[in-house]
Write a structure and sequence with these properties.
The protein is of the alpha+beta class and about 450 residues long. The protein is about 30% helix and about 10% strand. The strands form 4 sheets. A 4-stranded mixed β-sheet has the order 10-9-8-11.
Length: about 450
């Protein structure tokens, strides 16, 4: 399927001013950097394994890595070469092979996919032409090119598939193929366990983030009652107490569908955990290690997060509560891009970009905390919320319905905040992720909340 763009808001040609030229140069530089960063990561993830590990399927939930590689190139061709550049298709016959809506992941290994070297050549050919398009594109003609949106969209798309490929590496059996330094050790967190978020309105979503995706828009006012939220994500040690207390054996804590699911699939702990005598071990990118008590719990589904929260006498935060905790500044009453402010993420703020292959210990990155003192809202682990994935008031699909609109409804739960596997270009205070409540292979954790008594 070739997606159709929505070239609205055409503007008349005007002579470029020095300011406009400088702005265009800055946008072009940013787009180039994010595209190159994404491609470097894609290359690393698809060159560290070979043979069946590259062309086979480790799980029916995941595509072969070689499918992701060619799909990345095909999306770039459709949007940057054809839609923005107005070029003829390079390989129109493969569009359907790499259409994520036409072929479910479980069926992709049976397709006549491009071989690894051919997929690499195709993606490289597309990228070379896309950089030529970038060099000559004016960023003021249509919604698709305004502020370089199409280039940002494609960079985010590639980084999202890089995260998906990293999940495939985690699921893969066999020797270690990826390495990265561990996060800096920090003292055991002993600060307040929760933070009070005041009630009242705040601005949710965005109106001026140029590369924000359609489901993050439009900005709108939300009224939120006062509540408490965990200062840090729930840790492995805290979650282990839930297991030791028989949490997986007590239906009181589970939503009915969740209880049926864990009984049917014999779920008794987070994915990749196993008990060895008196300790818990986990498999992490080909290495077996003791489960670290102070790290945020990882690879739990929504039902597990919800059950833990009930057991703890708490609940999962709503999506609006999560965003208010992450973006609201009680001093100014304004809404920030990120918990720490409007500056792009740096290594002192959050664990992003596959810089590490694990979450950082709870309490890390004090420079990244919100004005209210909530930590690690960005990076480390995706955080489940209690909310279904739904459009904001006034939502308009752009540039195609399949990015968000077809997923709206009660089947999907919203996750917020990103993980260590997410690049900064695809993570911000307004970014929304979603998945089925049974999914555990994703880099998902959570924090809990409770309503504040009023009176």
């Amino acid at each position: 399927m070739t997606h159709r763009n929505d070239p609205t808001r055409d503007t008349e040609d005007t002579a470029e001013t020095p300011t406009a030229t400088a702005t265009a140069d800055a946008l072009r530089k940013r787009a180039l950097a994010t595209l190159l960063t994404a491609r470097d990561r894609t290359t690393m993830l698809t060159s560290c394994v070979e043979g069946p590990d590259l062309t086979g399927q480790v799980s029916p939930l995941m595509s072969p890595l070689v499918w992701d590689l060619a799909h990345i190139g095909n999306q770039e061709e459709q949007w940057l070469l054809r839609a923005v550049g107005g070029q003829e298709a390079i390989r129109p016959e493969i569009d359907s092979l790499y259409d994520a809506f036409e072929h479910p992941r479980s069926a992709r290994p049976s397709l006549p996919l491009l071989a690894p070297n051919e997929a690499r050549r195709y993606a490289a050919d597309v990228r070379g032409r896309a950089l030529d398009v970038l060099e000559r594109t004016a960023f003021d003609g249509t919604r698709l090119t305004e502020a370089g949106f199409a280039f940002g969209m494609i960079a985010q798309h590639e980084q999202q598939h890089d995260e998906t490929m990293l999940i495939t590496h985690q699921l893969r059996r066999g020797p270690q193929a990826l390495t990265a330094p561990d996060p800096e050790p920090v003292p055991l967190y002993t600060g307040p366990s929760e933070v009070l978020v005041p009630g009242g309105p705040f601005t949710m979503g965005t109106a001026n983030e140029p590369w924000a995706l359609d489901n993050e828009r439009p900005a709108h006012r939300r009224e939120v009652a006062p509540y408490f939220i965990d200062t840090v994500p729930v840790t492995n040690g805290a979650y282990r107490a839930f297991i030791d207390d028989g949490g997986y054996d007590d239906p009181r804590w589970w939503a009915p569908d969740g209880w049926d699911h864990i009984r049917r699939h014999s779920v008794t702990a987070p994915q990749f955990w196993r008990r060895d005598g008196g300790q818990w071990l986990r498999r992490r990118f080909g290495v077996t290690e003791a489960v670290p008590a102070d790290e945020p719990v990882l690879h739990v589904c929504w039902y597990e997060a919800d059950a833990y929260a009930r057991w703890a006498g708490r609940r999962l935060p709503t999506e609006a509560e999560w965003e208010k905790a992450a973006r609201y500044d009680p001093v100014t009453g304004g809404t920030r891009r990120y918990p720490w402010g409007d500056a792009d993420p740096g290594p002192e703020h959050a664990n992003l970009g596959q810089r590490h292959l694990r979450p950082a210990p709870a309490g890390s990155y004090p420079a990244g905390e919100s004005p209210l003192g909530v930590r690690q809202l960005i990076g480390d682990v995706w955080e489940w919320t209690s909310s279904d994935f739904a459009p904001y008031p006034g939502f308009r699909a752009f540039p195609y319905r399949e990015y968000s609109e077809v997923f709206f409804g009660p089947d999907y739960k919203v996750l917020r905040g990103g993980s260590f596997a997410v690049d900064a270009v695809a993570c911000r205070g307004t970014f929304r992720n979603w998945d089925y409540p049974i999914r555990r292979q994703i880099f998902s954790g959570f924090r809990t909340a409770r309503s504040a008594e009023v009176g």
